[in-house]
Amino acid sequence: MVPFAGWEMPVQYEGIIPENRAVREKLGVFDISHMGQVFVSSDTVGVAASWLDSILTNNVARLDVGQGQYTLLLNETGGVIDDLIVYRQTENDYFLVVNASMVDKDVDWMQAKLPESDVTLGNRSSEFAGLAVQGPAAVTAFQTMFGESARLPERFCMATLTTPDGDVIICRTGYTGEDGFELFCAAASGPDWWQRCTVAGATPAGLGARDSLRLEKCYPLNGNDLSPDRTPLEAGLAFAVDLHKPDFVGRETLIRQKTKGLHRRLVAIKQTGKSPPPRPGYLVLSGDEEVGILSSGGVSPNLGCGISMAYIASGHNKPGTPLEIEIRGKRFSAEVVKKPFI
Amino acid sequence: MNVPDNLKYTESHEWVRLEDGDIVTVGITDYAQNEMTELVYIELPEVGRQFSAKDEIAVVESVKSASDIYAPVSGEVVAVNDALADDAATVNNSPFDKGWLFKLKLSNPSELQHLMGPGDYTGKIS
């Protein structure tokens, strides 16, 4: 167990490698109760959506009821406060799933931007337990848990299911690159749902496996790969930014970057020879020039080699560019590769 | 947890086996490999280099983290287990045998007295 954003979290159960493999090949379940749940509502149609559109990068107005989207909360200079998923739960109600370490910051930031009337914001993070059921067998497990007639929402959609064991919110999303769903239930019934997931065939998986899975797919981790000094464009998240929206917090910086070009980009780097595992904080060099610092890194259980991400200065960030990673005073060869790793 | 009777142990979970003469073999204990889990890379010292007791002498890396290994006693590195370069997991599978790390030629044999016996080490990890 390790401390994580005020929670005690298991790094691993059986081991990072077998847990990673279980998710890629069959099914794993992660305790994601640490993640935050924030609800935004208004009495008037469109008001909550347009407020959210003024503080988030993606396009909330485009969401139909039941749909969700990956999006970012930016500061005034375009830096990332948090990355999150926003779902349209009903006509006027939105459900946001945010990072554990950022719940308070997000809510404070949003509270400060709240209009004087007609939008309500509720941080209900402590009411929910969360489980991420991930892997190719997710659909089968879902039917086992909820019955053959229950319908798993489409990718990036959500639904509230009423069951004899209480209501659960099911979101067809995840952080592993595999099919799967996230289940949010009343905090007290978390252990029972965990049990049901394992009975349905999911292998318990910890933070370590989760980190290796997301890194193999180049999903950024806030605090490592995302920060208040980096914009979503630099992070390669333009797909979650709608610059056609008339205005949102941070937009000016993004428009400027788009016009003038980016000085650095978050790229995927693979070790090309025998090397210790690359880890966050290691220096990236091109010849004798320092071109970046690893923001994430580790061993890919599926590729069997070191993989990492770093913001790399332009001129050195195209796939195929040879680089070196400095590890304990020695240099190890690596190269920029196309995202994702697998 | 396996703690063989014929070895000496350190606070930092290395084991030491006295070979013929003034040579010792060093590895990490079953407890240590179990704590670190899934070793993926092992950085061994250069043969011929001299180390003092408690110097950082090697690095053992698991999927999740890197851990320093300390020289249990002072001496010169006379051999390293090159086979670990291709399969670091040998240390997980056979910590006291095939997973040995390096051999030192003792420069101060009296330091062996400062190491723990199997009884004390078992007490420490239980």
Can you describe what's shown?
The complex is a heterodimer of chains A (342) and B (126). Chain A has 342 residues and is of the alpha+beta class. Chain A folds into two domains: 2-214, Gyrase A, domain 2; 264-342, Aminomethyltransferase beta-barrel domains (Elongation Factor Tu (Ef-tu), domain 3, Beta Barrel). Chain A contains seven helices and 19 strands. Chain A has a six-stranded mixed beta sheet with strand order 10-11-12-9-3-13. In chain A, strands 14-17-16-15-18-19 form a six-stranded antiparallel β-barrel. Chain A has a five-stranded antiparallel beta sheet with strand order 5-6-7-4-8, with helices on one face. In chain A, a hairpin with a 6-residue loop joins β16 (289-299) and β17. The two termini of chain A are 28 Å apart. The mean pLDDT of chain A is 96. In chain B, β1 (8-9) and β2 (14-18) form a beta hairpin. In chain B, the strands form two sheets. Chain B has a six-stranded antiparallel beta sheet. A three-stranded antiparallel beta sheet of chain B has the order 4-6-7. Chain B is globular and about 35 Å long. By secondary structure, chain B is of the alpha+beta class. The mean pLDDT of chain B is 96. Chain B has a single domain (8-107), classed as OB fold (Dihydrolipoamide Acetyltransferase, E2P) (Beta Barrel). The A-B interface holds A 11-12, 15-17, 208, 212, 274-277, 279, 298-299, 301, 328 and B 37-38, 40-41, 43, 59, 61, 63-64, 66, 85.
